[in-house]
């Protein structure tokens, strides 16, 4: 079977011959492994089951700063995936002169064309990152967004609705291509529980997710959702919305066996290999053993794509990345 066919078997809740796997890398680790393999194109040869394109258009404006397509400036002086917001654009619960962007159709089409070119061998996902709550706080600030949920709910509604409208326009463009899945990235969880709590999640986040999920499915695509942290309080909500794939599935915050028992017949888990504890600190043998254990546990009757819980960060030794590859390749 091709990697794509393995994913399709897992999504159908049939046990594939081998569990499909994915290894995504941060820029620093990609550079390190390219040197290790002496091959700039090594990533194309990893055997990843999923091809991804990310709807994050970033402009380098110098001085370790970048500007995203919503006009937000991010400082990247410290190591990290995104950096930190320099100054929120909406410093009051009012839009003022701020105008939301239109999706960049030319860029989106180019990304979709790259995905379609890989579709014969890999399952294709178009990523809409910072898709709701994260987009709101990147524009408004984390503390003020949470305050708005309590003190300025009408503004919070208007802000989130405009984000949804933007996302639906992106989905409409992607739907012109035979892309398999829309992957929404949006962190709601902490190490224990939701950042905003279940009441505010159900008031502000859940109904808008349901709208986006339904729109994606009306276009014939599946839905994947990323959220870091413990979101178990709202898993029944996500199941009711017919979410297909959940990522990142952190073993530090979930009893993964219990989650598989409760929801594994209705959802596909994507992740599970800890970048918080296992990959940075374990020995290569421990990485192999734990990866194999989770593949056997979570891959039973399909419904699992084995992967690190995040793009692998720079604190993970090369030996442990190779050990993960050994395990998922059956070596």
List the helices and strands and how they pair.
Blueprint: H1 3-11, H2 27-37, E1 50-54, E2 58-62, E3 65-68, E4 73-75, E5 84-85, H3 105-118, E6 123-128, H4 133-140, H5 142-151, H6 153-174, E7 181-185, H7 197-218, E8 222-226, H8 235-240, E9 245-248, H9 256-263, E10 268-273, H10 278-281, H11 284-298, E11 304-308, H12 318-328
Parallel strand pairs: 1-6, 6-7, 7-8, 8-9, 9-10, 10-11
Antiparallel strand pairs: 2-3, 3-4, 4-5
Helix pairs in contact: 4-5, 5-6, 6-7, 11-12
Describe the structure.
- The protein has a seven-stranded parallel sheet.
- It has helices spanning 3-11, 27-37, 105-118, 133-140, 142-151, 153-174, 197-218, 235-240, 256-263, 278-281, 284-298, 318-328, and strands spanning 50-54, 58-62, 65-68, 73-75, 84-85, 123-128, 181-185, 222-226, 245-248, 268-273, 304-308.
- The longest helix has 22 residues, at 153-174.
- It has a single domain (3-328), classed as TIM Barrel.
- The mean pLDDT is 96.
- Helix 4 (133-140) packs across helix 5, helix 5 (142-151) packs across helix 6 and helix 11 (284-298) packs parallel to helix 12.
- With 331 residues, the protein is an alpha/beta fold.
